[in-house]
Every structure is written in structure tokens, then in C-alpha cells.
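Record type: monomer structure entry
Structure origin: computed from sequence
Chain ID: A
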Amino acid sequence: MRALTLFGPLAWRNLWRNPRRTLITLAVVAVGVWSILTFDVLLKAFGEASREGTLRLLTGEAQIHAPGWLDDPGVTHRMPAPAGALAGALAAPPVTAAAARVRVPAIVRSEYRTRAATLLGVAPDEERRVSDLPGAVSAGRYLSGPADPGAVIGRDLATRLKTRLGKRIILMTQAADGRLAEQSFTIVGLYASQQSAEDEYVFTGRATAQAMLGIGTDVSEIAFDATLQPGLEAAVAKVRKAAPGLDVKTWMQLSPLAYTIETFTQSYVAVWLMIMFVLMAIGIVNTQLMAVFERTREFGLMQALGMGRGLIVLQVSLESTLLIGLGVVAGAALMLLTLAPFGHGLDLGFLAPGAEMAGIGRVLHPKLAPGEALGFCGLVWVLGILAALWPARTAAKATPAAAMAAQA
């Protein structure tokens, strides 16, 4: 402690013997830390938006289907409504919410145009717990119950069909007996979501869809969510045990693109950390070695006056510790200043159409994790100090003879 008390102020003064070199090193470390922290926050916001956009659209955290439905999502691959052990598994933790749906490919026709679509028969109260679409109605209303005979379609689909709220559309699809089922629906609501969803999904009451298809109380899929603890895997295992003959898959299997994006963001931050640390280490070692070579005479004279090599290493290490610490603090401050304007969200602007292809909305919501940010800062600081040990050891090798030679 006495050595730190003595050499601390000395190390601080030595940093500013060459202000230009010190400021350049500070800038290198600050920019590196800023890029690591900022990229970490933005990429995680990107991955989270992709995951949440996929999960809260219609996927849920997991889904149950009849065997073969994923390969041929038609009315022939259906299953009974949840009952018995399966109903019990879906009504108890770790499952937090579940929604049974009828989902079949269909043709929707207005008085002007015809387009392919997906008919979804839903129970509104169940659907609100696993999907954001019931709350995304921009005009009219959502369905009032499972027996609601109205239809809710996307704004984009309404534009393509040249129809509007209050108009009638005709839905055609294959019924359970193989005949062509055809029924007229009144548009009671328009919803706003991703363009791909707006253009595809037509919602009606689940009982209405079941009667149209002639499938009794059967359903096509069940989407469900789970608690954080014990987690999705425990919920899936419980559901599979309750319904061994059904196909249960997680969102990672159902939406591999969203899962890949989330995994990629985590890996990219680690790669970027390594790249930036290598660049920072080169700058730190280079500038500190230059400072050491310029002070060869000083270190040699200090040894001639009785200072041990360990104390010289300590002095140079303290200088590096202070220098890198200042750079880390400056980088963290720059990151906070960069993210401060986006507290209410980051509008992707012209990137929004491309982001939507990955299931991401127009606005990202960056969130800083203080513990993780402190961890990155501490890691950069420690690694920077370790990189600076080379110049410190070089300084300790100076001898009084070398000092005399430098003086001559």
C-alpha cells in the first residue's frame, strides 16, 4: 500500500509528460470500448426483436400439431381439442398460456380480386394471451368470441383485394369430407402488423371455422408459452408426456431464422470483442513501448539509486492501469451518450423493409444491461493491463550502464 501511495501520483504525472501520446491511446481504448458496448446493446435488441416478433405474431414459444401437419397443413391433419392429461398440462405451470386454433390454407375473394390466404379460427380470449395481433386492430374491432361470424383481415390484404371495413368477402377451402367449403364473411376489423402477416392471415371465430370445415371440435394447432423457470424445455417435456402421439416443437424448430439471428448476435459480440481487443492491445503496447524506450535513462538511474526492478514494473503497470481505466470510462460514457436519444426506441427508417423480413418491427428498443456492461469494461481493463506487462518488463530490464550509454 505504501508503494501504491507513493507511485500512484507519480504514475499520473508521468501519463501527461507526453499529452498527445496519452490522448491517442485514450482514444483507441475509448473507441474500442464504445464499439463493444454499443454493438452488444444494439445486436441484442435486434435479436430480441426478431425473437419477440416471431413469438408474439402467432408462433408462441412452442406449438402442438397432429403428425404430418407441418408437411401438409391441411384439414386432414387435425387433432382433438385439448382434453384429459393434455388439458391439465396446458393449464398448469410451467405453461402460462395456451391457444387452440383452426389453421388451414384458403382462397379469399372480394368483389374485385382473389388471393391466397390462411384461414385462422381462434378463440379471442385465448389468443390475447399468446399473440399481439388481437391488440393490433387499427380499424373496426377484433372478434368477440369463438362463435363470431365476422372476419378480421390485414390492411395490406384489404388493399390488395380492393375492399374495406364492412364489406363482404368469400372464403373457400377444403372441408373435412373433401368438398369445397365456401362461406361469406363480413369484414369487422383490420389489423396492422408485418406486411407478410397483413397479406396472409384472415381471422374468424374458432367455432365458426370448425362448422365451416365440418370438423366438430377438432383443431389444427395449439400454441403455448412457458415461465422462465423451470423453462421452456420442462414445459415441452411435460406436454410431450401428456400427449405422446402429437408433434410438439419449440419456436427454435418452428422459426429457425429467428433462432439463427439471436444466436448470431451473441456470437458476433464475442468475435467483435476479440477483434477490438487485439487492435487496442497493439495501440497500448506500441505507445507504452515508445514511452519506455524514451525513458531508458530514467529507469537506469532509478535502479542506480536503489529502486528494485519490481518497483519499476509496478510504476509502469500503474501508468497503464490509469491510462486504460480512463479509456474504459470514456468509452462507457460515449456509449451512454450514443444510446440516450433512443430511450423510446430506434427507428430503423429505410432499413425497416429488410428488417421486417427477419420478423422485426420498424422500431428497436435497445436496453442496457448494467451487469453485462460492467463485465465487458472489467474484461477490457484487465486484458489491457496484461497486455501492458510487456512494456513494464522491458522497462525493468534497463540498467545503470544503459542509462549512461543513453546519456552519452
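Annotation 1: The mean pLDDT is 85.
Annotation 2: The CA atoms of residues 313 and 392 lie 5 Å apart.
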